[in-house]
Amino acid sequence: MGWDNASEWMFSWNEDLLSEKPAPCRPCKENVILLTVLIQSILIIMSIVHRNLSRLDLNLLTAFDAIYTERSVTKAAECIGVGQSAMSHNLARLREALQDELFVRTPSGMEPTPRARAIADTVRNLLWTVQDKLLTTRSFTPATAERIWRIGLADNIESLLMPPLLDMMLKEAPGMRIQAIFTDGLRVLEALDRDELDMGIGVFRHGGNVHKRRNFAPDSYLCLYDPKQITLEGPITLDQYASLPHVLVSLRGIFHGVADDALSLLGRTRTIVMTTPHFLSVPYVLRGAPVITTLPGTLARSAASAHGLCVSPLPFELAPFRLSMLWHSSYDNDPAHRWLRNTVASLMDQMHT
Fold this sequence. Notes:
Elements: H1 15-19, H2 29-47, H3 50-53, H4 58-70, H5 73-80, H6 84-98, E1 103-106, E2 109-112, H7 114-135, E3 147-152, H8 155-172, E4 176-181, H9 188-193, E5 199-202, E6 211-219, E7 221-225, H10 238-243, E8 245-249, H11 258-265, E9 271-276, H12 282-288, E10 292-296, H13 297-307, E11 310-313, E12 321-328, H14 335-352
Parallel strand pairs: 3-4, 3-5, 8-9, 8-10
Antiparallel strand pairs: 1-2, 5-12, 6-12, 7-10, 7-11
């Protein structure tokens, strides 16, 4: 790709970002408070004795809360959906685990002991936390959601995807923001694993076991030139393509692309007079010099429309390429992330149609 250098990745790592150093930490009241809370949390975690907790079944706490609420073993069993004998068995296990009678049978029902009253609120809060944090399906409403999406992509995809994506977000999800990151494809997997990116978009040759991929429609290549600089009648011919000077987008600065491989099969060569890692600078180069370039079709047509340039099909066969979206599997069931993936996929499909 380079465009026209498919032997390279679509990304280029911004070394300026890598060289940035965090600002020195300044002691302040907020930092002291945060540090205190962190230390307290660590001490709480360290104080958990897992062997003791393993003896207490969560179902027993559910039984305790039901009996405490209903003041009846029979009604508690009906509330949970178990038999009365099973509920009585749970109560016996609770009494053994907590070393307390917990509930005493009276004419008005099962009366809680002082020990039961003391732990009732704690048990109720614990059950509520489990239900809310572990069992409740996470909801997502774009109109009220707030999130920063970190998307790794090259400038050619950014120029095509970001305008419609940002426009849609401003209308439907105003609390969301986008951080477009110019990322090297060789490091995109590492960035996903470190949770430095929410997704990467480009041409990927591989992915790890913990990564998910969604392919987009294939794209082909086109020639792009300025008719004020170069006069061509009809589609460019093979002789013209080989004789005209070329600008090549190469992220590594290599004067060789996939078009050169195709030409060599025909016994032909071309002259590359300039390489650049930036797709978006190419149209300006074409307008200032009698050179041509080979770019992805979608980008070439967009640049032609925006800069008054012309496109032409290649005078030889060149295999199409396919962009895809890559993300870490830990976000696969995240409702917000799923919404972003579907939105990006829809916009990418629209570009190709």
